[in-house]
């Protein structure tokens, strides 16, 4: 039987233990050994995490996708992102956890950096050792600072963190459309996504968002197309689809309960929506996900 998805602070601790000024760094092997190398699917509502994998292998679950990794990787997990791991015992690296308030504070003057750290993804760095080692220099400097009792430690850490984000931005492993969008467009997109994450968008009109953001429907559509390659309506559909997949894969809620939680007018409408987006009924998806996604996160390593 599945348990509810946990909203943790640092893994295993209550969400309300997160300080607004939290910057926490720990080696992956030391923190995961006590959990037998298995980190169950969970999320953090006010916390970002960055996993710097120096060596070793495992399986990473990000939202509804499970991927294997081996060797040098960077894994970025923004707030409210479902994630979990099955590490092998040879894993080496660091987990950097940073409160949402600190992230917003240090990226406030550069929306491209904010957008960069808000994309949940795994970056294979096996062919980019120089760039990865450059980032690890910042991690090692932060680790050294955290072990000291020096003046202005938090200011120092925030400065190093900003430098680290610039280094991550410069990786540019994925030469995508994201960097082509103007800064103002990134602000509009950021505000739009914050709105649909904070209030269930099922019964909200696009005009509801454009009025709050201060742009036209056509403009918001151009913003979404420039950044995601998809129109506004599909961005909303993708969000609802992702939320429903997470609930079906990692909870025991019935399809009716999920439809109700996501504010669909009735379960039939939810089922039609889901099948149109995926080609599967919710019940078919749930069976398939339990046979594949969860088996992969548990055993394929």
TrEMBL record:
<dbReference type="Pfam" id="PF02311">
    <property type="entry name" value="AraC_binding"/>
</dbReference>
<keyword id="KW-0238">DNA-binding</keyword>
<feature type="domain" description="HTH araC/xylS-type">
    <location>
        <begin position="190"/>
        <end position="288"/>
    </location>
</feature>
<dbReference type="Pfam" id="PF12833">
    <property type="entry name" value="HTH_18"/>
</dbReference>
<keyword id="KW-0804">Transcription</keyword>
<dbReference type="InterPro" id="IPR009057">
    <property type="entry name" value="Homeodomain-like_sf"/>
</dbReference>
<dbReference type="InterPro" id="IPR020449">
    <property type="entry name" value="Tscrpt_reg_AraC-type_HTH"/>
</dbReference>
<protein>
    <submittedName>
        <fullName>AraC family transcriptional regulator</fullName>
    </submittedName>
</protein>
<dbReference type="InterPro" id="IPR037923">
    <property type="entry name" value="HTH-like"/>
</dbReference>
<dbReference type="InterPro" id="IPR018060">
    <property type="entry name" value="HTH_AraC"/>
</dbReference>
<dbReference type="InterPro" id="IPR014710">
    <property type="entry name" value="RmlC-like_jellyroll"/>
</dbReference>
<keyword id="KW-0805">Transcription regulation</keyword>
<dbReference type="InterPro" id="IPR003313">
    <property type="entry name" value="AraC-bd"/>
</dbReference>
